[in-house]
Amino acid sequence: MSFLSSIFSGSTFALLGAALAIGLAGTGSAKGVGIAGEAGAGVLSQTPENFGRVLLLQALPGTQGIYGLLVAFLIIFADGVIPGTLPLIQGVGYFCSALPIAIAGYFSAIAQGRVSAAGMGIVATKPEESMKGVIAAGLVETYAVLALLISVLIFFNVPNMAA
Question: Dihedral (C-alpha) 8, 12, 16, 19: value to the nearest 10 degrees?
């Protein structure tokens, strides 16, 4: 019985949430940056002078991974998580706080990578208009920022159950 209680502890749930936040948001960012990078490499093979424009579009989908990392740090460095003394209900609260950025970060990073890849077409044909592609990709970022905000709000509103 003590084995089960050690597996289903508050710290276990909190650490699982931290792992999901960085794992899913980071995976989405890697996929999004990869999608944009493939398109960017094609543009640069024809016009290497557009490197700065391509780099900006390729970097945009990487922010979701950073947001997931931020939430993971908040959870890992919360009182009681690392020593393993976190109450179960508080650990489940921290787990729930990780879900918005984990899920929305994953999907928005991939979508942003696709929009960035499409924006590479603007860079290839009309480089002076490339900020339109950046703005289009930036609009997808809104939903990652909203997910980060909700994750942080949930985290800071999980009641401290430590006695």
Answer: -160
